[in-house]
Fold:
Amino acid sequence: MAHLFNRKAAEAFRTWTVAAKRSAGVKRLMRRVKHGYVLTTFEAWQKDTNEILDERRKLIRPVLHRILNRLLMMVFVPWKMMWEKTVKIKAMMRRSMLGSIAYCFELWSEEVAFILNERAKVNEKRKESAVEIQRTWRGYYERNGRGSRLVLKRAERDSERRAEARERARVQKQEALQAAIQQEIDRSELEFQFCEKEVLAALEIKEEENKTKVGKRRLKAAAISLIDRVEERGDGDTLTKKRALIMVKQHEEKDLRRRAARTALRTFREKNPSKQACKFCWCAFSSVAELDSHVCIMDSEINRVGGVTTEMVDDGTEVRRS
Structure:
């Protein structure tokens, strides 16, 4: 009995299981169908909603732009109004200028016509005057031509007067040149005497300074420095202390003479300037022609009045060979 019951129960359970699975499958199928409809409906709703939103955005975009770009619109609208006003003003001015141009052209046309008429009248009078001038000139030329005796005498007298005037001008120019040269010579002599006196005074002061202990020490130090520079050259030349001291004194004397001569020249020429002077060689001249034609050697006048000679060298040429 138990076995029979269990068999019946198993069959009933299998039948219930199959029915339950079928019912569950039908439910799942219905759920999927329902969800498919819901999804299709949602997609349709989403599409319609997006279209509505796009239409709304298109409608509110200009307003939105004006709201977002209020500053731009606040500037653009007055600019647009000003531009339209300017265009109208330009058109009005163009119409006014066209009227003024037309008026000016009419005035110009009238003036041109008047000028042409006057020019024609003037040309007629000019022809008549030219004929009268030619007639008068021919008569005058016949009476006072180039070959007439009166003209020849007048030309001879004019030539003689011009020759006398040229001779007087040449003599006056020569005398003025000689006077200027003599004046420059006198001034140069005074200048040379003044500069020589100043240079000698400076040399005396320098000599007194060299006789002091400080001066002697300075000369010895300069002589030793000169000997060291000659030995550093390494060409086999040497200097004695006596010769180095002499060369140092010569160099200082030359430099002092130049400085004293330059100062004396500047002082003398401030009170008694020359007519022309070269700013490079300090030479004085009586005229511009002499200044332009001279051979310029740097500081040649300073060397002359200062008594600087070419024998005053300081390059160590006179040395004792070792």
Observations:
- The longest helix spans residues 70-144.
- The chain is about 85% helix and 0% strand.
- Strands lie at 237-238, 276-277, 284-285, 320-321.
- The helical segments are 2-68, 70-144, 149-210, 213-233, 241-271, 288-293, 300-306.
